[in-house]
Fold:
Amino acid sequence: MDLPFTEPFKIKMVENIYKSTKDQRDKWIREASFNLFNLRSEQVFIDLITDSGTGAMSDKQWSAMMLGDESYAGASSYYKLKEAIKEITGFNYFLPTHQGRAAENVLFSAIVKEGDIVPGNSHFDTTKGHIEFRKARAVDCTVGIASDTTAWDPFKGNVDLEKLEDVLKKYPAEKISCILITITNNSAGGQPVSMENLRGARKLADKYGTRLFLDSARFAENAWFIKKREPGYSDKGILEIAGEMFSYSDGMTMSSKKDAIVNMGGFIGFRDEELFHKATTYNIMFEGFITYGGMSGRDMNALAQGLYEGIDLSYLESRIGQVAYLGRKMKEYGIPVLEPFGGHAIFIDAKKFLPEIPKEEFPGQTLAVEIYIEGGVRSVEIGALMADRDPVTRENRYPELEMIRLALPRRVFTNNHMDYVAAVVRNVFERRDNIKKGFRILREAPILRHFTVGLERV
Ligand SMILES: Cc1ncc(COP(=O)(O)O)c(C=O)c1O
Structure:
């Protein structure tokens, strides 16, 4: 018999989580204005709202923290992190930031101006927020197949290179801040981008005289998919694949809270020294001095270690394997999940799950609330609430995909927890015909509204 694949670690410390009753949860979610971000963590049993900053650090990362150098300038922790970034990404220049959106803020301060265009695959919400805040526009050129939740394609996160070229042709080079490709493509379901696609985007960047940046929060998971799915890569290591991915870009933004398995942190990598110097000024203004940015020395040490743990093949097998385990269970129960399963999360097609709820009543949020009430599982809506209003018309934007995301923290839950989550969703699925009404908005922020929106039942 083939031996089953198991986690390449054992558990050294545990944290209790608390079950509650349906009545308690019903009361709590009302008090939270039906916004799952407003719940206290003790009111949640299995928290799958995000895989960001929620991972479990290793004994090596915790011990690296004790060796953190907290010098304001020139800390050894900075140099340790610089070496790890250089080895894994190839970038000679980097700036530490406190998280991914801070990296976006600093980089975009240096390269995005009013009226600019930033084409790419689906931009993450904070990324789009930072672009639109500067009165520039993010143009989504993701491949069309990404919006078909059941079509099987190995690289559904790809950029449609023809669409991208149309955009590059349409605008003068000085209006294109950069091409920005998110690996993996979170908003399209944690779907990977192929090496061939990155190579193609590089060619277009060269042809039209613009830069290519990678939003690299889940670069290691993307490299794993390339190894598994793209011809010619099965014998290559994750380090080598990651190195090739980054070689096609001019730089990267990183939310280290994902694939580098730390609770806080981020950075920007640059190939070009001049751009690095330009961005440095903004980093000092918004984040901190060059050699710590928004991070303490101990956090930089944990990050340097985490970057290596995040590209470990057996870790990636078990991490992406657990996501697929949850996906298979849900599929077995007939739940409409997005396929192929993503790297960090399972996405449920809310339009198919709750076809009677009109898009104006936010079927994704309705489903997320029902799943919480059923079993204390917290997910997040990836749909019309998250999409915000059109910055010009102020009309609601209704994206083609209305989904909820159950994101798995790294090294945190067991497959027993996954069985529980699948059973909770199954129970809601079995009573879906009784869910007839969604939500209307009571109050909302002008941008990134889903974090703070207040809702009431229709
Ligand atoms: C693809 C992507 N880019 C950027 C970010 C922003 O990173 P952070 O939450 O660290 O600010 C996220 C966070 O979830 C993300 O998924």
Remarks:
- The chain has 16 helices and 14 strands.
